[in-house]
Amino acid sequence: MKGTVKFFHDQKRYGFIETEEMDDDVFFHEDDLEGDVEVGEDDEVEFETEEGDKGPKAVNVTEV
């Protein structure tokens, strides 16, 4: 799935990805980034989703 990083909190190391496929933004944590990827707001990313504690969560996040 593809999306755009809508928000990323540098200190807490988490953020949200906006997609056209899903109604709600998808949560991700820095631990979900593949390799040495660094992302910031407005970056285009690809990812997979899995069910987290509070809904869908992005995993295997890579920069496009």
Characteristic key phrases:
single chain; 64 residues; mainly beta; OB fold (Dihydrolipoamide Acetyltransferase, E2P); five-stranded antiparallel sheet; 5 strands
Description:
- The protein has 64 residues and is mainly β.
- It has one domain: OB fold (Dihydrolipoamide Acetyltransferase, E2P) (Beta Barrel).
- The protein is built from no helices and five strands.
- Strands 3-2-1-4-5 form a five-stranded antiparallel sheet, with no helix packed on it.
- A hairpin with a 7-residue loop joins strand 2 and strand 3.
- It is globular and about 25 Å long.
- The termini are close together.
- The mean pLDDT is 94.
Q: What is the total domain count? A: 1
What general outline do the C-alpha atoms trace? globular
Q: Helix and strand succession?
A: EEEEE
The CATH topology label is OB fold (Dihydrolipoamide Acetyltransferase, E2P)
Strand order of the largest sheet: 3-2-1-4-5
**Main sheet: strands, sense, barrel:** 5 strands, antiparallel
What is the architecture at the second tier of CATH? Answer: Beta Barrel
Number of strands: 5
User: DSSP helix count?
Assistant: 0
**CATH class bucket:** Mainly Beta
Q: What structural category do the secondary elements indicate?
A: mainly beta
Helix share bin: under 10%
